[in-house]
């Protein structure tokens, strides 16, 4: 066989062998690939299953907070004074939003979150994963943004505080900030009790960040506890209306009213002017936020005289019928001349209160040991907080001196040189009405009247109340405080307003403090009219009528039976007394 024929014979055999090898190589390659895939599948499905499942979950599952509802504040009859309503808060993940800037154009012209505003916020916090966009939105407002489907924008449910009575209860109830943390009033004083504990839940979100399924409740939210106040919203409205009317009518810069339950020490009403609306605090004057009845001090003037007389009675120095010579209508004490409205001559102790004689009370104070009157005022709560748990409450000013000058003792007897709040003064009169016992004041509803502690004897307290009835009588200085059908006991006061430069010559505060019904007092109230117009500023003119209307309404609302069925007509012309 020739060489060419042998070569031709070998080529097909070699070709077949190479083809077989290639087939085996391809088969081996695919077997290796299949083996790798099987190994990888086993690795993914078995070895790394838990890890990968977790990674998938954290890209779709989210743990979200559950907002806790803040406790409700109610009046003594269950009427809501502060409630929390659900609102929607929009937030963004800037890192996610920056990856989808082409989607921002959807926000152009949006009334809640405009594109330009959104871009500024996101770019300013590009490294963060959470920023607030808008808080406290109504559901329809939030939906106008969420429906656009802009990546990186999410929502959560929060609560917003709402105050149904608005300005009427603002100084007592106070308000919270946007995070529902108490800032003023009861909201601050009882913040721990009102604040709930937030919960947590696990949810599934889609690619647009929308919650598509609640998976698991990890921890339920615990709502805050409710607080039931001692306030009666009916009396609060009445006090608010009458005080505001008086402030406007007499051109005053402000005023306060406090109404107490004599037996329980509960604060039934507490209002101030000027006020504010806690539901809309934009542009509010910070001075309007003060609860003046508990924080602002004033010299009580002649409303202190009953306690001077009480000190003298407790010492056994006088009786209501003891005669005191006030002639010639003034008294020189050191460098100061103390004057009455006119010369009352020789009058008894009862008439000292009826006519509000400065000379008479000065003589009583000067005839007793110098420490007796300050100690008595301290026992009535002057110079110390009432303990009502109101934020910022002032303790007042009651001087403590080892040695008192005569002029200081005299001035103290008719209410100068001592400073009180309206709340303190109301507490002192409540002690007189409670047969000389002092009970703790309370801003929350009291189920049972406390026993209290004795301050003065029952007979002394009853005698003072009887004497104070004459102040509202025909010859007294507070005829306008009368309440048809009820006996009223009380005292007027008119004091020069104390400023940074001393006593203002033509600026005053008109005060009335009283009790009703006088035969068995249930209500103690104090009315302060601050800086009324010069044409009418006496306590008997500006404050006493406010007391009459408010306390009369309170007695009727509390179904207190009249103790003077024949009645008198309130608002008769004022008597000649002016203090």
From TrEMBL:
GO terms for molecular function: penicillin binding; peptidoglycan glycosyltransferase activity; serine-type D-Ala-D-Ala carboxypeptidase activity. This is Peptidoglycan D,D-transpeptidase FtsI. Residues 67-214 form the Penicillin-binding protein dimerisation domain. It holds the Pfam family Transpeptidase. The keyword Transferase does not apply. It is found in: Membrane. Pathway: Cell wall biogenesis; peptidoglycan biosynthesis. Keywords: Carboxypeptidase, Cell cycle, Cell division, Cell inner membrane, Cell membrane, Cell shape, Cell wall biogenesis/degradation, Hydrolase, Membrane, Peptidoglycan synthesis, Protease, Septation, Transmembrane, Transmembrane helix. Residues 255-551 form the Penicillin-binding protein transpeptidase domain. It comes from Alloalcanivorax xenomutans. The active site is at residue 302. HAMAP family: FtsI_transpept. Catalyzes cross-linking of the peptidoglycan cell wall at the division septum. Its main location: membrane. Belongs to the transpeptidase family. FtsI subfamily. InterPro entries: Beta-lactam/transpept (IPR050515), Beta-lactam/transpept-like (IPR012338), FtsI_transpept (IPR037532), PBP_dimer (IPR005311), PBP_dimer_sf (IPR036138), PCN-bd_Tpept (IPR001460). Its EC number is 3.4.16.4. It comes from the Bacteria. It catalyses: Preferential cleavage: (Ac)2-L-Lys-D-Ala-|-D-Ala. Also transpeptidation of peptidyl-alanyl moieties that are N-acyl substituents of D-alanine. The keyword DNA repair does not apply. GO terms for cellular component: plasma membrane.
